[in-house]
Amino acid sequence: MVHVRRRRRAAPVLLAAGILLAVLTGCQPEPVAATATPAPTPTASVASPAETFAPSAEPTETAPAAALPGECAALYSEGMRASLEATVPPANDPVVTMLSSQNAQLAELLASGIPVLRCTWGGAEGPGIATTVASIEPAQADAARAVMAESAFGCESIGDADLCRIERRGITLDDVEYVSGEDHLFADGLWVATSWIDVLPEGYSADIAAQLWG
After folding, report:
1. Do 80 and 121 contact (CB within 8 A), yes or no?
2. What share of the chain is helix, strand, coil (3-state, %, to 5)?
3. Residue 179 forms beta bridges with which residues?
4. Where are the residues of the annotated region Disordered (predicted)?
5. By C-alpha distance, which of 202, 206, 199, 204 is closest to 88?
6. Are the C-beta atoms of residues 129 and 97 closer than 8 Å to each other?
7. CA 123 to CA 1: how far, in whole Å?
8. Minimal CA–CA distance to 121: which of 75, 85, 167?
């Protein structure tokens, strides 16, 4: 009988133990999920001082290039052409290599690929004239004038055009004196550059200015 009673009392104890185990199991904290590594926050790039103060590219308006004369004959009046034919023939001899400016910067601009019309008088040796009419933009004209101002050219107005000129004297290796010079006309998007040696008829550039701009 004693053994039976002990077995009957053990059942509530086991049941209580089971309930306590369940309660304890249900109260266990949930497993904490692993914290994800935060993605790096993108930062705004900082412009360098050069980029900060660089001028913005904005379109600029420029005057359209003026049309060049179609031929050299359009540069001269009948009287000036007759004078040139009498004093320094022939016209447009291909052997003439004289540039229309002896200034390296001006000669480089004339040879930079801008539209030009080249007209010459004289032969390979002796007196000669080389005139180049170029169609240029205002900024190019300003650059050419700045070079002339630094090179002791004197400038004046002739009608609607500006004329800048210089004259030089020297002695050749054969002890022969010579005189040379340059005339440069600017107006209406055109630049008329003339280099000459030992001859330039009176009023040469003024005659061209009258033919081109009236």
Report:
1. no
2. 35, 25, 40
3. 169
4. 34-64
5. 199
6. no
7. 153
8. 85
Task: For 45, list phi and psi in degrees, rounded to 5.
Answer: -70, 145
β partners of residue 192 = 133, 185
| pLDDT one digit per residue (tens) for the chain, 214 residues | 434 344 444 433 333 334 333 333 444 444 444 444 444 444 333 333 333 222 333 334 444 556 899 999 999 999 999 999 999 999 999 999 999 999 999 999 999 999 999 999 999 889 999 999 999 999 999 999 999 999 999 999 998 999 999 999 999 888 899 999 999 999 999 999 999 999 999 999 999 999 999 8
Rounded Cα–Cα distance for residues 206 and 203 (Å): 5
Q: Are 121 and 132 in contact (CB under 8 A)?
A: no
> Alpha-carbon Rg of the chain, whole angstroms?
46
* DSSP codes of every residue in 69-113: PSSGGGGS-HHHHHHHHHHS--BS-TT----S-SSHHHHHHHTSS
List Cα–Cα distances, 48 to 14, 53, 57, 70, 179, in angstroms: 79, 9, 17, 52, 56
Rounded Cα distance, 30 and 124, in Å: 105
- Write out the two tokens for 63: 């005057």
Q: Whats the size of the chain, residue-wise?
A: 214
pTM value is 0.70
Tokens of 66: 């003026």
